[in-house]
Amino acid sequence: MKVNESNIVCRVDELNGFKKDNITLCDNKLVLIDKSKNGVIESPEIETKEFDECVGSFACITDKNSLATLEISIKVNGKYSKYFSYGAWGLGSSNLYYEQDDTYSYMHVDEILTKEGYNATGVKFRITLTNDAKLSIVNVILRIKDYKVSLDTSNLPKKVYYEVPKLNQNMVPVIGHEMCSATTSCMLLMYKGFDFSKYDEFPHRYIANFVADNGHNDPTYGNWSFNIFTIGAYGVDTYLKRIYSWDEIKWHLANVGPFGASIGGDTGLYKTAGHLLVVVGYKETSEGTYVLCNDPNINDRFGKDNMGNPLFVYYEYKLETFMNFFKKGVMYVVE
Fold it and tell me: 1 pLDDT exceeds 60?
């Protein structure tokens, strides 16, 4: 288990001190010993810096009949809350969230939050597996007020770029305007080599069916955790991550790869309360630093690029602009 104060990333071969029931390690994944019964893994209590929000996710191979349930409890006012549940999740199952409440904390969609006037100082979690579910990573990200991170990036390259397939969400009829997150997840899966063309002419619509959050019988596609659950269901090592600085982003791009970014604000092309895009690299020039993105909302309605070609997904945002709209700091990571 690795804790760097704002990100708790637990890989299944590093779970010292965790309780395990009907669970064993096989081929670097946790699986059931006896498939006729559920298996449970439970973390110890983890002390943290003060936070007011956390979000959990996992990388677990699942399907309609092989499910994984993530539950998280946070320590507020000296006591641990009840376990808040992300529900029994499986690829292709009818997955949904529901609002949950406790004395000092509550769960809204994918976020577990403290109530006004309180902060949390600890977290613990458990995961229940059924049938053929295979777990590789569990993680929890924390929102810590005024948290600062700096890294030495002086030896990193001046340019990093990953050739990530480009998908435009607006091409999809009916639900296209709602599925930036699904489109981002699909681009990341395609970057990892997956091909969904035999299932749908729009591969991101195919993925949207899986990331859909069916809470209250009103599907939405922007549930951060459900998107990571979907990517992980294909056997990809994936997790949410919260970052607080450009140095962290630059380091990640140079050492890990592209990532999905949850944004909000003024991009210079459009304004958004919430949107997802893929960060595919950066470049440092004499004119400044640019963040290279596959933005699923961008098409020719925003004009042409420097070469006179109609804009389509790829766009280079000035660093200052990017950092302004990436204040949430939440990333979809694929390894």
Answer: no
149: pLDDT confidence band, cut at 50, 70 and 90?
A: confident
CATH superfamily assigned to domain 159-334: Cysteine proteinases (3.90.70.10)
For residue 14, the model assigns a pLDDT of 87
Q: Which CATH architecture has domain 2-143?
A: Sandwich (2.60)
Domain locations in the chain as residue ranges: 2-143, 159-334
Q: What is the largest CA-CA distance in the chain?
A: 63
Q: 72 versus 219: which is more confidently predicted?
A: 72
